Fold this sequence. Notes:
Blueprint: H1 16-35, E1 46-47, H2 52-70, H3 95-105, H4 111-138, H5 141-153, H6 155-159, H7 164-167, H8 172-184, H9 188-202, H10 206-222, H11 231-261, H12 267-270, H13 313-329, H14 331-349, E2 352-353, E3 358-359, H15 361-368, H16 382-403, H17 406-424, E4 435-436, H18 441-450, E5 458-462, H19 475-481, E6 488-489, H20 501-508, H21 514-522, E7 527-530, H22 536-547, E8 552-556, E9 562-566
Parallel strand pairs: 5-6, 5-7
Antiparallel strand pairs: 1-4, 2-3, 7-9, 8-9
Amino acid sequence: MANPTAALAPGSQKGNSAVTLACFLLFAFLSYLWCRRFFSFDELGSQVMMDGDPALNARALNWVSRAFTTDLGSLFNGNTFYPYARSIALSEHMAALALFNVPVRWFTDNPWVGYNLIIFGAYLLSAIGAYLLLYELTQSRLAACWAGIFWAFCFFRVHHLSHLQILTYQWFPFIALFILRLDKNPSLKNACLLSLFFILQALTSWYLAVIASFLALIIFVVNLKPTQLTIRHFGSFALAGFLVAIAIAPFAWPYIGAIRETDLSGRLAASSTLGDQVKLLDFFFLPVSTYLGAMIPNNKYWVWQENTLFIGYSACLLALPGLWYSWQKNRRVALMALALILVGYVLALGYFSTAWGGKLPLYYIAQKFSFIAAIRAPQRFALLIYFGVLLLSGYGIAYLASKFNARLSGVVASAFALLFLFEVYPTNLPYGQPVVYQPSILDSEIAKASKDKSKPLVVLHYPIYTAMPGYPTNEAVYMVDSTTHWAKIMNGFSGAEPLGFKDNMKVLNTLPSPEALALLKKNHVDVLAIHAALPEARRIELKAFFEAQPYVTIRQVGADQFLVLLDHQR
């Protein structure tokens, strides 16, 4: 990689397509290097994390993909947290990602293949989008190539590896690009493309929908020229807004009901206590997962801490001359970048600040728009800061390219790119090698039992981790394994829970108590899946009890697992 960008220095138009292609191939290669830390390209159905949030998202991704092709009306119904009707609305629906996953499901039922390809696509499309945006602004391919590398490989994406709905922020540069193009040329094409990319981002995650809205608003306001605003401008932006609204509304409505029916309802009341969430140091301290960060004793900035928000020293260094150069060449870009950085930092602080002595803007916004209070990790507004640094550092490279000859500017840009990649490469991650996915043997048996049924089975898995101490990430394993059969399962893991869910699971954990048996009957549970992880004494107790019941069939699966098949009609 010592010289792949040397050819990117300003020059004639001859060979520009080849240079762009070379950049895109470089982005693809770097995306491959990063992604092979998370899954194997030889086995796309592998992953390094198959419980918790990744399993939750893999199951949701595949449920929504299935709904797109079989029963669109069931998109939000889900098959977990039974009998709750809208389990997909307990987390992110990721409908935009599910669309890309649909063709993957034509070739494989492995829930991780599409999931992994989407991660790879997030890296590659982020790089391409940032390249196109900075080339549009600077006409420098060196600046564009740097921008692609910075936006794609910023450590924030590794930090959110377990959050597919957050790491897929690849459409931000496209949104910015088409706002600027629509401002210059208010055409139907630009209006439709702006709305398309905003819809793709908004229907990936509500977090990203809100953050992208601030991004779009800041870029629109900074570039607004009232003296040049025409009816054509107004009509084009209005059309884009209308298309976005009608596309998003059907997906937003189920969440309104979910707020009333789940513990999401308590977030508005709690928002006034969530503040002072970031410090300036958070953006400049190397994560322990990087080469240099691993050398820092007692480094608390580990991969999954929300305050692991490292920008990169090389990017910040480039942003300094980039601020001066953008102020000289295109003052509105400098103002955009500064506004994004400032607004991003204030929003990342949260709802309330004792340090600043009062309520913050996000608090008042949440009072006006209650769904904003569902944001419990305001640190993610750091994406606005990164975008501001993207603009300034891109202009920093453009400045260097204007000062040096083609060869030297290529070497300098390559050096900055290599330094940045060294700063953020995830060499030290807290998990092992990728493992090829295999559903549990019990779920494979449930799939066989489901084939003869006219309606989905209702299943309860034991052990019930929700009823035990600790964070119940293993409940998500039941969820992703349910993609094997799509039975309705009473277990669940998510960012929110239906009201009364935990109480019911605690009762069911007392089986074979009369209260638990009554709850099984009330919910028409067809199958109890008794996994080997359940303590042996409990397995023996449950097996002995159900063997004595006339309405039960026991199906042994291996030495220490079995299914309890219930027939409440007998």
